[in-house]
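Fig. S4 source data, part A: sequence.
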Amino acid sequence: MKIKKGHVAVITGAGGGLGRSLAEQLASRGCHLALIDINPQALEETREKVQRPGIDVLLFTTDIGNREQMEAMSSAVIEKFGTINLLINNAGITIQKS
């Protein structure tokens, strides 16, 4: 897929590491971003690194293991941008057996 200016990218695990690096790369190419992480402070730090004129950045403090939170996030992204061009599932979850 060719990444174009104005594309919309959703990145889970965007609070640091690979997720933050991908957000920086996509923002440098002119992508609008929806960034997801469970750590709100880390998300703000990522926003500071990627925010630039002409780029919309939405932050979602979301647990990707929570279906309701993910549906609400998805609806908000579609409402704002109308589409999602790129989804990067970078976050993981742990499922504990009782």
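Fig. S4 source data, part B ends here. Residues 67-81 form the longest helix (15 residues).
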